[in-house]
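Q: I'm building a small set of examples for a reading group on sequence design. Run inverse folding on the following structure and report the sequence directly after it, with nothing in between.
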């Protein structure tokens, strides 16, 4: 069913406005003059929105004369203890799991202490200390984060602001991104104003006004692949994308080498056609005016003469690419990007390739104004059968920011515009089997190199134990002895981000013991991740594990999307007499959780409660009982 381009753009603008307002309102630091307490900082860090105990470690001049600062953990804090199993030469300065990514707006503030804290509490702190320094994240590493800073405030240049950070204990917090919303709205406004005669063939296809042109395999001809390691499904996806005239979707389930496929596709496009390609991904001292103008001209010349430009969706709206037109736009991680973001590079394009996995988590949406979400999810994931396909398609198109361009095009044109990668290079066969059968039509194949690899076979010495020889472990806490709690009933502050969360202290004890057993067997803490759907459980697990194992990755399921570890321990939390599971029933969230490990997946949860949540959850519990190393627990082991 064709979609009105102007109506779509109008509704997107209204939804984006509501989302931006909700994001600002929900931020505990929405006011730049509000000093954050220690408990607020901890809550924000546990939720993945902040990093504390940081210091400025490096400073340089970046693009546009902006000051770029590198921030890492304070070595005085991070070197106070070494995780068991870590080598002597290895520091404990990894940042751990967090949700700060390239392109995010962050504020860097000094952590007040002593007299400064007293003055702040008394209301006498000066504006400088309260406001901090705001910048844009340009790079994220395992041990540090880089941010570029502009003007600090009225009459205060960024070079002076960054200089003031040396030698201070700092924290970084993610803020609402006004620039991103502004660029999305500007793009939607341009789309809305286009006359029908101005609609390109690509726009007509993307809104269902016409069907994609037939694939042109004849023009592709025989291919000589430059990467000899590509498998058959990757080669087929590349052929398909080259033969497409307007759109191609590359569906990359976990561990299937999506990025390698895109790299080969770019090389083929450049070699065969000389086309200009833009790759966008959800990844990418104030100087004199004359310097800025010269630099801008240099950038324009470089971009104009380049066949491939790498950037973020947000960055595609910057002045450097403002008037550039690309023959092909490739969008990686398209299933995690809002559609309005995708349109920033797409408006002037004639051809697009989207790569992603619509069966993992979509972009996070806070606004309740993005309506019909429950109806859509219910129809998609098997709880409601009476929603007609056309109604579903209309709802997809118009009323929900969570629906991505990848989702919408599948709904609009069907699976004929998609090719799926099928060989995965991450998971042990037993870890892969359930998501493959339930979500990927049993099409995933474990590569020979990963099919049977275990923790005991790691490249460093690990003992052969009951834990290290098992790829799949399930601690079943059924029976009511491991009940969930609300944060305020467990001594954890219920303020801010934890107010509607859940935790389970007995289950956390089980998780902690399993981690200790793995480390005792020789598994390095940095090769282990502990994840859970609930922020309150993240906070509780941090109290139990982080001091003892500083390099252990610990965070939310949502924040760990796109990551992997040798061993992953998942705490499901929910255990109650009413058998309520909340958003644990979301298939895509569980898909992320169960596909992160390479060699070892440990699930801890109450099978009685969880299996009552949905048919999918019931089948998962049955699969674990049949295929995992099933372990029942004695409550007395954790109460003595």
């Amino acid at each position: 069913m064709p979609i009105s381009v102007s109506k779509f753009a109008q509704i997107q603008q209204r939804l984006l406005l509501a989302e931006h307002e909700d994001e600002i309102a929900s931020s505990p630091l929405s006011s730049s003059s509000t000093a954050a307490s220690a408990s607020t900082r901890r809550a924000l860090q546990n939720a993945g929105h902040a990093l504390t105990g940081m210091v400025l470690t490096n400073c340089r001049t970046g693009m546009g004369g902006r000051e770029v600062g590198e921030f890492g953990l304070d070595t005085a804090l991070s070197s106070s203890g070494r995780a068991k199993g870590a080598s002597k030469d290895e520091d404990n300065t990894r940042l751990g799991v967090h949700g700060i990514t390239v392109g995010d707006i962050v504020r860097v503030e000094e952590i007040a202490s002593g007299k400064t804290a007293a003055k702040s509490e008394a209301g006498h702190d000066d504006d400088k200390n309260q406001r901090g320094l705001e910048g844009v994240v340009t790079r994220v590493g395992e041990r540090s984060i880089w941010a570029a800073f502009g003007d600090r405030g009225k009459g205060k240049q960024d070079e002076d602001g960054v200089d003031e950070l040396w030698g201070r204990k700092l924290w970084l917090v993610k803020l609402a991104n006004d620039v991103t919303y502004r660029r999305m709205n500007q793009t939607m406004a341009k789309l809305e104003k286009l006359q029908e005669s101005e609609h390109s063939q690509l726009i007509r296809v993307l809104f269902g006004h016409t069907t994609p042109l037939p694939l042109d395999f004849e023009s592709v001809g025989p291919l000589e692949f430059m990467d000899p390691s590509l498998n058959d499904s990757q080669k087929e996806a590349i052929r398909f994308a080259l033969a497409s005239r307007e759109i191609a979707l590359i569906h990359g389930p976990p561990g299937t080498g999506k990025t390698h496929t895109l790299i080969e596709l770019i090389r083929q496009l450049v070699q065969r056609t000389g086309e200009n390609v833009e790759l966008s991904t959800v990844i990418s001292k104030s100087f004199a005016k004359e310097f800025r103008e010269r630099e801008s001209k240099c950038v324009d010349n470089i971009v104009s003469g380049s066949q491939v430009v790498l950037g973020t969706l947000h960055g595609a709206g910057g002045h450097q690419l403002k008037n550039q037109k690309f023959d092909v736009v490739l969008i990686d991680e398209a299933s995690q990007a809002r559609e309005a973001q995708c349109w920033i590079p797409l408006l002037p394009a004639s051809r697009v390739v989207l790569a992603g996995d619509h069966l993992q988590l979509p972009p996070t949406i806070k606004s309740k104004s993005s309506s019909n979400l429950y109806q859509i999810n219910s129809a998609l994931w098997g709880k409601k059968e009476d929603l007609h396909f056309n109604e579903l398609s209309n709802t997809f198109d118009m009323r929900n920011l969570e629906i991505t361009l990848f989702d919408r095009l599948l709904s609009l044109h069907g699976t004929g515009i998609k090719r799926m990668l099928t060989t995965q290079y991450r998971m042990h066969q037993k870890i892969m089997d359930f998501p493959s059968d339930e979500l990927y039509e049993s099409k995933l194949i474990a590569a020979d190199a990963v099919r049977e690899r275990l923790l005991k076979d790691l490249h460093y010495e690990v003992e052969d134990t009951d834990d290290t020889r098992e790829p799949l472990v399930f601690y079943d806490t059924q029976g009511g002895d491991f009940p969930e709690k609300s944060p305020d009933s467990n001594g954890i502050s219920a303020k801010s981000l934890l107010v509607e969360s859940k935790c389970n202290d007995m289950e956390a004890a089980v998780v902690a013991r399993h981690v200790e057993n793995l480390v005792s067997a020789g598994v390095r803490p940095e090769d282990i991740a502990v994840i859970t759907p609930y922020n309150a459980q993240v906070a509780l697990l941090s109290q139990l594990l982080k001091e003892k194992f500083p390099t252990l990755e610990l965070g939310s399921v949502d924040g760990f999307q796109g990551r992997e570890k040798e061993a992953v321990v998942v705490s499901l939390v929910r255990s109650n007499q009413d058998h309520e599971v909340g958003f644990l029933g979301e298939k895509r969230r569980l898909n992320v959780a169960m596909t992160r490990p390479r060699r070892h997946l440990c699930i801890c949860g109450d099978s009685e409660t969880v299996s009552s949540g949905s048919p999918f959850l019931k089948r998962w519990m049955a699969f674990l009982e049949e295929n995992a190393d099933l372990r029942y627990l004695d409550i007395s082991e954790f109460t003595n």
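The mean pLDDT is 82.
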